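worker-03 picked up job from queue 'complexes'. Input manifest follows; two sequence lines, order preserved.
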Amino acid sequence: MRHVWLVALLTVFVWGCGKSDHPSPEVADKEAGSKTTIESLSPEQQFEQLNIAYVQELEQAKNASGSPAVADQYAGKFLELASAHPEDRTAFASLNWVAMLATDPDLKNQAIDRLVAEHLDQQALSRICSQLAQRPLSDASEVQLTAMIEKSPHDVVRATATMALASQLSSIPAEQQDEARIKDLYQSVIDQYSSHPRLVAAANGALAKFRFRIGQVAPEIEGEDLDGEAFKLSDYRGKVVVIDFWGDW
Amino acid sequence: MYPHERSLVKQLSEKPFALIGVNSDSDLDGIREIVKEKNITWRSFWNGPDGTSGPISTKWNVSGWPTIYVMDAKGTIRYKNVRGAKMDEAVTTLLAEMGHQVKLVHEDHAENE
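worker-03 finished. Artifact:
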């Protein structure tokens, strides 16, 4: 069901300015969908047809494990559509569809590579970055995100790409991580994107968590005890220390 | 919590060990009473009048209570959110690194509270 919602959202989002005035084509037989008939449709109509067919097929897939296969099957078709009409905004919509919905990493990467190469001006790339933040690091994603960070004209894309790269770099085993690079990425979001307070807050949170990871030297605490006497955590250096944040509520 | 902590503090009184609380009750007088009543035998920082929004817990990015960190003698964080028997294991491991072999024995209930 989530897929259906997402596809609907993508379609509405991409065609934001509302339905076009194309006359409805005579494609009564969606199942047959002969090549000639499909190709006589505008790119936008072809996109919509593919979407509709995908949603229908998805609903017919009986088991959950059937749904990735359906998405990837249609991903191939959307990639072809993008290749067939590279100048039309259908190309962006199609590549975006694949980037967001395909599960096969090769298909996803094909789409994202082409988006980065041919549609870097699109602000909607920030959504792909948000998704990439959840995915493991790969050579492909590092190149894609770096390209968006360096070349997107949109703040929001550069900021979300930075967050996604930092997140991916943090997803590998701790001992292999480049801590300095990760911290720099989060710091750059804090320094450069104050117009995106939620991303700044997320960067601050991530940086803070960084300081308290296993393996980090704990920061100092300077304060007063319950009798008002000043003391410091570093007074206990040389001892095994348990710090217990507690309350009696 | 308190019986286990108290037992730990008592058994390790001769060892290079410290249990330090950071208390986030906003009512200082109230919490001083609790400390006496419940026989809390270890030192705590007070997180200030803003309670759970206070400066220490904010700096340490604490969002849930209790939160526990265990540090070695160099101040490096080695364990997080270990309680009861797992806290015992963490502490005995780190003391062993310093050459101190300890065996912790808690009275009934103390081990898991």
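worker-03 released lock.
Chain B has one domain: 2-112.
The domain at 2-112 of chain B is CATH 3.40.30.10 (Glutaredoxin).
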